[in-house]
Design brief:
alpha+beta
């Protein structure tokens, strides 16, 4: 697949996201990925918090409890693992449109200390919606606190009571998605 464009949209930049749009040569597969542009800073901050929290936990535990070497290693691993579950990588969302087959939605949010490839493999949530189940792809608007209006891409699915939400987009992504799907 070749990259069509990598764009940073003004509304998305307020939330510090950018879109990467890839399409294969015959136009049968379109992949749109929302990437946090602040991913590196957030990941470094999360790693720092996990490391400092682990060190603090070790010294606090050592002050109040006498443990064997095995007990100390186990407690260090437990503290590190629990903090890693709390402070995670930012979510990356991908929409893959397979012409005449359907839509695949993928969300990856892994552990801060693991490389991105491991997180993609172990922590990906993938959902495929077959073409015959897709009623339509729409840009919807919603209201959030403070009377803000947000726009997001959604998929209407047959016999479903809820919209399948994707990510905040613009008309450009909407037109690419509907053109590739239909």
């Amino acid at each position: 697949m070749s990259i069509i464009e990598s764009i940073s949209l003004e509304p998305l930049m307020r939330q510090r996201y950018s879109l990467e749009i890839h399409q294969n040569s015959n136009g049968g597969i379109l992949r749109i990925t929302m990437v946090p542009t602040w991913n590196t800073n957030k990941n470094a901050m999360n790693l720092l918090i996990v490391a400092l929290g682990t060190i603090t936990g070790i010294f606090t535990l050592a002050r109040y409890v006498q443990l064997s070497n095995t007990g100390q290693l186990f407690s260090i691993a437990t503290i590190f693992f629990l903090l890693s579950l709390i402070f995670r990588r930012p979510t990356m969302e991908t929409l893959t449109v397979l012409a005449n087959y359907g839509v695949q939605i993928r969300k990856v949010r892994g552990l801060a200390f693991l490389p991105r490839s491991f997180n993609r493999h172990w922590f990906a949530e993938t959902e495929f919606i077959p073409r015959d189940q897709v009623v339509d792809v729409v840009i919807n608007e919603g209201f959030v606190r403070g009377f803000q209006v947000i726009f997001y891409l959604a998929v209407l699915v047959k016999e479903s009571t809820k919209l399948r939400l994707l990510f905040a987009v613009c008309k450009h992504v909407f037109s690419l998605t509907t053109r590739a799907l239909y």
